[in-house]
Amino acid sequence: MHGKRSLTRRGFLKRAAGGAAVVGAGPAIVPSSVLGADGKVAPSNRIGVGMIALGRQAMARNLTVFLRWPDTEVVALCDVDRWRLDTAPDRAPRYHGGTPEDAETLKKCPRYTDFREVLARKDVDAVMISAPDHWHVSMVIAAAKAGKDICCEKPLSLCIDHGRILSDTIAGHDCVFRTDSEFRSIPVFHRACELVINGRIGELRTMRMAVPNWNEPLPQQPEMPVPEELDYDLWLGPAPKKPYTEKRVHPRKSYARPGWYANQDYCNGALVNWGHHLADICQWANGTERSGPVEIEGTGDFPPADGLWNVVLAFDVRYRYANGVELFYTVVPPSGEKKPYVRFEGSEGWIQADYGPDKLTAEPASILAELGADAVRFPLKNEKRDFIDCVKARTQTMEDAEVGHRATSLCQLGYIACQTGEKLQWDPARERFLNSDEANQLLTRPPGREPWRV
To answer: What is the crossing angle of helices 401-420 and 160-171, to 10°?
Structure first.
């Protein structure tokens, strides 16, 4: 029954799309014949979504969206922490105006600790991967091989070589992929890019971006008993086998900020994890979203490498592109006086987009005037709406696997420059450094544990 339903829905979507391949296409027009008697999307034609991982990001931004849309249906929940599985139905409706009906829907949803069981379900058309960063590549590859459409949290990988494997894998499968970064959907960043691309600041010369960094050093902690609700071996997955301690994983029975965010086995810290958002905006405005810079240099403040929390802290990175544009990347001052931002400077002025609270400023102010009817425009929509619309239309999303990989790798290049202390020459086509064997060794990681080897 599940198999027949999935085949019918997937077949319908492909036929409705008519083979179109329009970048950034709008929502598919759903014929009335697939609607129920009340005019709503019939259950048999909703996109079945499997939620893989139910941590901080999934609960705050991902789950409720798919739960409440009329053309999507959450059909499976998965997390290696059974406390999260048990509490998700009651907690999810608290975000973004959820309802008691949402809770009842989730209570009926099948729940799993092993994501492979979600991928095996025939009623799962698409997956939302919200797992820690070290799991992204393995889960994406498995989902693509299982024939699922994929929305995956940024950053896409922990190293550039694995990001290339991810992007090439997606290119070889018939699936829709969306890098789940919301910044192209935030109006001030979206508009800043449109204005730059349409020449409002003249010739683009310099880009600047800054991110918050909550990372701090922490020495190794005593080994602790693994909580009864946690499948710790499955949480580690492709990462090296290390003893359990709570600050390595996430706070027990809590959605507070997780410790894995500060450990290089699972994350590259704020430089890459947070930086992906703004890197994508810079790449987009510069017309290099499928390429990258040619020169990188940087400095960083690293805690002891043998500590539990050991990712880079403060940093300053400079990039130069083949077109002469330079990008300067640093950390928001800890005083909090300046929010995360992107700034574009050109021959005729500058424009800056600030995050939280969102604000757009420019000099001269006339840069912000409305664009004309003949301007280059891009659709503005929720990032998950973009994903679902493209699943239905079988078209390319606004931040597909290659674009997402390049945004992630831009940040990873900065991390490597901080590690080596060298001025690095980069070939964005071959994705190799031209002048440093040491830096090239940092493009990959040792093979992971079986059976999760990339």
So the answer is: 170
DSSP track, 58-96: IIIIIHHHHHH-TTEEEEEEE-SBHHHHHHHHHHGGGTT
**C-alpha distance from residue 260 to each of 236, 248, 249, 294, 353 (Å):** 10, 5, 5, 31, 29
What letter would DSSP give residue 115? H
C-alpha to C-alpha distances, 25 to 145, 186, 248, 373, 433, nearest whole angstrom: 25, 18, 41, 19, 36
Q: pLDDT (tens digit, 9 = 90+) per residue, 303-335?
A: 999 999 999 999 999 999 999 999 999 999 876
Give all domains of the chain, ordered by start, each with its CATH number: 2-184 (3.40.50.720)
Strand order in the sheet with 126-129: 111-112, 72-78, 47-52, 126-129, 149-153, 177-180
Say how far apart CA 143 and CA 156 lie, in whole Å. 14
Question: In this predicted model, what pLDDT tens digit does every residue of 419-439 receive, in sequence order?
Answer: 999 999 999 999 999 999 999
- Residue 385: Cβ-neighbour burial (10 angstroms; 0-12, 13-18, 19+): middle
Average pLDDT over residues 342-359: 97
Q: How far apart are the first and last CA of the chain?
A: 33
10 Å Cβ neighbour count for 357?
A: 7
- pLDDT tens digits, one per residue of 13-26: 443 444 333 333 33
The length of the chain is 454
DSSP code per residue over 387-443: HHHHHHHT---TT-HHHHHHHHHHHHHHHHHHHH-S-EEEETTTTEESS-HHHHHTT
The rounded radius of gyration (Å) of the Cα atoms in the chain is 22
* Interior angle at CA 130, CA 106 and CA 183, nearest 5: 110
Tens of pLDDT, residues 71-102: 999 999 999 999 999 999 888 877 766 677 88
What pTM was estimated for this model as a whole? 0.90
Tell whether the model's pLDDT for residue 137 goes beyond 90.
Answer: yes
d(CA 162, CA 431): 12
* Rounded CA separation 72/367 (Å): 39
pLDDT at 346 over 50: yes
Q: Each residue of 230-257: b (16+ CB within 10 Å) or e?
A: bebebbbbbbeeeebebbbbbeeeebee
- For the record, the structure tokens of 264 come out as 């290089």
Coil, strand, or helix at residue 383? helix
For residue range 60-70, list pLDDT tens digits in order: 899 989 988 99
